[in-house]
Design goal:
ABC transporter, ATP-binding protein, 2 domains, 11 helices, transport, ABC_transporter-like_ATP-bd, about 25% strand, ATP-binding
Length: about 290
């Protein structure tokens, strides 16, 4: 288990991370969600002990070598654009100290997995953004690390290719690579993660399994505009913060829902609705 304990990071008098506590167990696919600038990448860099993010607040399993045992797919891609796909992957295999037969076998497997065998001799700059991302993904996991950090792996990927990335993440997990990733697409987090952390302004503000988190919130639905205004007034009267989405309101679960809202249709929100409530988007109304 990799464990972050009360991690606080200050850079140039700005608090980047504030009292972060997080556990990354070998039986978990951890999804971290948050707005741009919330601190997701800073958490990753802290785990990797990179630059300003070196710290003493993280404990690692015995005999774990950060450089060799934790893979990292950065949000900023790093391929040699004037070299071919094959040369790029061979280079990253060499960095991972793979012998030639093992490297060739893994490169062949992953090119086939992502259905880009025919691009082996193409130069990186000749590829689409989506195919470049596939190559970058393969390069980052070619050594089959014990732990794998993926920073926005679904960025710029169409739904069909996103399915391949989901399959790849699950394949890694099933073959003893523990995965942590960030994403803005809540549906992919819901589909993959068995542990979720929500980060806001450098702090963990929500965590748990998907069901744990959903059970802490409720949606309250109405059928017409008359009920809509009545419900808004009732939410305000009960001092409940809510996110309004058409005729549905997402609120944090409380005993007031049982006693005061029993005449309304109460359901369970999506992770996206909860995320919007937590982050105070423009159409969230905060009560006094």
């Amino acid at each position: 288990m990799i464990s972050i304990n009360n991690l606080t990071t200050v850079i140039e008098d700005k608090k980047i991370l504030n009292n972060i506590n997080l556990k990354w167990s070998s039986n978990q696919k951890v999804g971290i969600i948050g707005l741009n600038g919330a601190g997701k990448t800073s958490v990753f860099k802290s785990i990797l002990q990179l630059g300003f993010f070196q710290n003493n607040s993280i404990s690692y399993p015995a005999n774990l070598n950060i450089k060799d045992d934790i893979g990292y797919l950065s949000e900023n891609r790093g391929l040699f654009t004037k070299e071919t796909v094959a040369k790029n992957l061979s280079y990253f295999a060499l960095l991972n100290l793979l012998d030639a037969p093992t490297a060739a076998e893994r490169i062949k497997f992953w090119l086939s997995f992502f259905k880009i065998n025919e691009l082996s001799d193409k130069k990186i700059f000749e590829l689409s953004k989506g195919n470049q991302q596939k190559v970058q993904f393969i390069a980052s996991i070619i050594g089959l690390p014990k732990y794998m950090i993926l920073d926005e792996p679904f960025s710029g990927i169409d739904p069909l290719n996103a399915d391949l990335f989901i399959q790849a993440i699950n394949y890694l997990y099933e073959n003893n690579t523990t995965v942590m990733y960030s994403s803005h697409q809540m549906n992919y987090v819901e589909e993959i993660a068995n542990m979720i952390y929500v980060i806001k302004d450098g702090q963990i503000v929500e965590s748990g399994t998907l069901n744990d988190i959903k059970n802490r919130y409720r949606t309250i639905s109405v059928m017409n505009s008359k009920e809509l205004e009545a419900l808004k007034n009732k939410l305000a009267k009960n001092s409940l913060q809510f996110f309004a989405d058409n005729n549905s309101f997402t609120v944090q679960n409380s005993h007031k829902l049982i006693s005061d809202f029993k005449d309304y249709k109460i359901g369970q929100p999506s992770l996206e609705q909860i995320f919007k409530l937590i982050n105070g988007e423009a159409n969230i109304e905060k009560t006094i």
